[in-house]
Amino acid sequence: MSASPNTLHDPQQVANRRATVPHTSMFVRMLLRAAVLRRGRAASALLAMVVAAAVATAMMNLYVDVQAKLRTEFRSYGANVVVVAKDGQPMPADAMGRIQSALGPKTLAVPFSYAVARTKEGQSIVVVGADFARTRQLDHWWKVTHWPAAQREALVGMRAASVVTPDRRPFDLTFHDRALKLAPAGLLQTGAAEDSRIYVDQAEFQNWTGVAPTTIEIAVNGSTVEIEQAIAQLTQILPTADVRPVRQILEGEANVLNKTRATLYAASALIVLTAALCVLATLIGWVFDRRRDFAIMKALGASERLVNGFFAAEAAALGAIGALLGFAIGVGVAAWIGRVNFHAPVVPRFGVFPYVLAGSILVALFSAVLPIGLLRRVQPALILRGE
Amino acid sequence: MFPRLVYESFRRQTRRKLLAGVAITLGVAVATAMIAVATDIGDKINRELRTYGANLLVTPQEDTLDVEIGGVNLKPPSDGAFLSEGDLPKIRGTFWHHNIVGFSPMLPVTVKVGEGTSAKVVTLLGTYFNKSLTFGKDEFTTGVRITHPWWKVQGTCGDRRIGDERTACGWPDDNSMNLLVGERLAAKVNARPGDRLEVNNRQLTISGILSTGAAEDDEIVAPLAVAQEILGKPGAVRRLYVSAMTKPEDALAVRDPKTMTPEMYDRWYCSPYVQSIAYQLQEAIPHSHAEQIRQVAQNEGTVLARIKGLMLLVTLAALFASALAVSAAMATAIYERRQEVGLMKALGAGSIAVAALFFAEALLLALIGGIVGFAAGSLLAHQIGQSIFNSQISIEPVLFPIILAIAVFVTFAGSAAAIRRAVKFDPVFALRGEA
Known about the structure:
The structure holds two protein chains of two kinds.
Chain A: H1 5-9, H2 11-20, H3 24-37, H4 39-74, E1 81-85, H5 95-103, E2 108-119, E3 124-130, H6 132-138, E4 143-144, E5 153-157, H7 158-164, E6 171-175, E7 178-189, E8 197-201, H8 202-209, E9 215-219, H9 224-237, E10 241-245, H10 247-289, H11 291-299, H12 304-342, H13 353-376, H14 380-384
Parallel strand pairs in A: 3-8, 5-7
Antiparallel strand pairs in A: 1-9, 1-10, 2-3, 2-6, 2-9, 4-7, 5-8, 6-7
Chain B: H1 2-12, H2 14-49, E1 56-60, E2 68-69, E3 72-73, E4 83-84, E5 100-113, E6 120-127, E7 131-135, E8 138-142, H3 144-147, E9 152-155, E10 179-182, H4 183-189, E11 196-199, E12 202-211, E13 220-223, H5 224-231, E14 236-237, E15 239-244, H6 262-269, H7 274-284, E16 288-292, H8 294-335, H9 338-346, H10 351-389, H11 399-424, H12 427-432
């Protein structure tokens, strides 16, 4: 239709034109105007939506990530897998290299070698060759006054010290007639077998005794299944060694982790439920509040479908915008909780977003449909009269 | 007139009041449950951390050096000093005996298994499995089944060979002469549950195969009395493992009790630090030295702190969400009643009278919702405790007034903005429905 002034303002032409044009522009306009004109109410509904989505996002992010975070904490309990050379068979020389390449260079593996030496008085004592730098990372709970740094320095267990060097002076040890003079660098206290031993540097130990590492303690990071896989892998690449899970550590961890996860799950469910309730209460109020709009639309001849569609579209838009904003805030909250409690931020899980989006829209639709169902039975005239 | 207004408002607008009431009730229930769980979680996780095993080791004071590699003792075990088995029940008499979950004495002896040329020298470990003891009138059971929960036994139950870890199946009786054989040793000597094993020329019955993932897999584990008889030292105990619930270490915990002032000493003594429990064990058992097993004791504190911190933050999130839900419901409920406000004001009511009416209604709703919500929340906490931790979550009675006060506060805070706006409406517009 050409736009000459005559045809443009002719009422008949306008009516014809409007009848053939699709109603989308009007529909969008109604949605936008409703949001703009009732800013306060729309904002409060959106706020409820955003907060609910944020809380839900934060809880879901936490729930997924906290398990990994707690597992890292549990690694402070030390090794959960021990590789021991089988009776009479030496550990392959490249065992450490094989382990590191199989489990990744980040996995902490610490070799130990053992020998029984004699003191000057003829007392037997266990001497351990250790990699001090790695041992220090693996065994956080060791109480050490001073780690050995120089040559010929040893870390002496609390109880061993009272036998070999009560006055903290250098002492002699013999192993198969080969003597070694050691200076006690520091004292070691663990409350377990380590207290009766003397730790010296691995290279020095091998020089002195000729004994190679027989035990490798490994801290495998991951879930129970991942640790089982690691054990199977290690058994395969080290056929001459025994690969043993440290059941005390594994089961303790699994137990505590399961209980924590279950508690967190219950808490998350409760919180998400409360958040959904908050949205429900706000949106029901919002829709009820607009029963006059509803009545006017019906009185002007809008079909049931159009009115329902209008309110549903409004709710869905609200849900979607709320979910988007809430997701961003929730990721921030989760990161903050991670930083405060675990000193490492919780990594955002974008896989959670579809669930948050779907959940938000569903709750919003539900809260819109519920009051509309109630209003449908009421005559528009009654609502418009303010009853 | 005022009570009547409130009463009629509740009677005539049941639906609206119900919506707000349900929101308050649910909010309070969630808050109560989360607070109860968060305050109790430390204790619960502490108990769960006991699955890591004993955190205290008691040895004789003049103990000699252990010469052991990978759990294999290379020193004749008859050497050295012993603790006396008769002193063990005294642990029940210490100040913190409620925190002591269990204890297990250990007595390793070297024995010869089998006969003739196929004989093997192995370690036999005497211990309590689930021993009944009495201290005064107090009866209790203790042993490795409590302190070493990761020990698994596969045994025979009647004719069926099953290895159910939850039942007592396979575990020897503490007063019997039956024993457990470690799984690696069992594979070497081809021993099965129900077989007889010759130990130092005694024929003993194997009641089960033990799997621990540690040195015991190469050993024999027997009731303490069997080990004492083989060693020829009745009542002897080499080591004692004690599993106790402790408070994480702080600055006071690591102080030397000898340098403390009397008040400080009392505070230290009456706190369940691992150090003070060790001190009390030394007092209870003569000629003993108690030491924390740092691998277990030191790490508990960090794990506990992390989990407690996490639950605290989650509880805050729950409180925030429920406060918001309550406020949203209240705001909605009040906003819907603009016309009523208009009518009251048109009839000459002042802003204060209108606000007072709304606040009175909010107070009533908060009290009812608070009471019902507290009851529901207690039930919820109870359910969580039962299903997750298999134990009661205790709800402090002092929580009730606090929760009620929070409920009233949140309801008021949530209503305040809506009430202010409702009061400010021009009655004319409100009555014409143009607000």
